[in-house]
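Technical note accompanying the year-one report. For the benefit of new consortium partners, we illustrate the data format agreed upon in the data management plan: each record pairs a sequence with a structure-token string. No post-processing was applied to the example shown here.
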Amino acid sequence: MEPAIKPAAQLSKNGVIGVLATQRTINSERLLGLAEQYAQGKRVLAQACPGLVEQVEACDLDSKETRALLKKYITPLLSEDVDALILGCTHYPFLLDTIRELTKDKEIEILETGKPVALQLQRILKKHHLEKVTMLNDDDFNDSDNLHFYNSSEDPTTLQSMKQLWQFSQYSSQLTHQDSQISSHKSIAIKALPALEYGYD
């Protein structure tokens, strides 16, 4: 949430900011603290979105059910004239196309935290010298022809969903950026790897 609250407050012209987030995030003191720190004098309207995470993890991104959920959650914010909308969960950018469609009649800045979070992760990995980890005795994960993913879950359904969502994000990126440097024909290798193996949680 932190990478989005401050720019949302700066971009909002009418002082009304909408937040789509999980119930847990909305109930957290962190969100309240960020709003008080970066959005003083603004109205921050937080909308819980039960069910959206599950829809994304099922790779159900554009069904009638998903659209109905998004419309249900976004409509109250639109009625309050939000002009900055924060996607407060890392799952929600996968729904960005539908969100843009539902808000196309309004001039709304949509902000998501994925890129800032990824950059922060990159800084942390660099700090702990984990930018490139070689997995000994694991030939499938030591070649340059694969895109490598490590996941703390061993659930095969979760790993398959991760693969499908990555493929979707790359397809969408290539539609937007025809000069994308990421090859769409690369194989994707995914392996469960508990985060605590490195001593960081």
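Partners are asked to follow this layout when depositing records. The radius of gyration is 19 Å.
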